[in-house]
Amino acid sequence: MKILIPIIAFGRSGGYRVLSQLANHWIQMGHEVDFLVDERSPSPYFPTSAGIVRFGSLGRASMRANAESEAFNTSGNALSIYVRMWLALVRKARRYDVLLANHSLTAFPVAFCFATNVSKHYYVQAYEPEYFEALPGWKNRILRFLSTMSYRLPLHQVANSPLYIGYQGIKARSWVAPGVDRTVFVRRAAPPCLSEGSEVVLGTIGRSEPGKGTRYVLDAFERLARNDARFKLKVAYGNLPADWSRLRTEVCVPTDDEELSQFYRSVDILLAAGTVQLGAFHYPVLESMSSGTPLVTTEYLPADASNAWIVPSRDSEAIANAVLEILQTPIDELTSKLDRAEAAVEEYSWPSVAQKFMTLIEEARESCVPAIR
Question: Which residues does 254 contact at the CB level (< 8 Å), separation at least 6?
Answer without folding.
Answer: 236, 237, 260, 262, 263
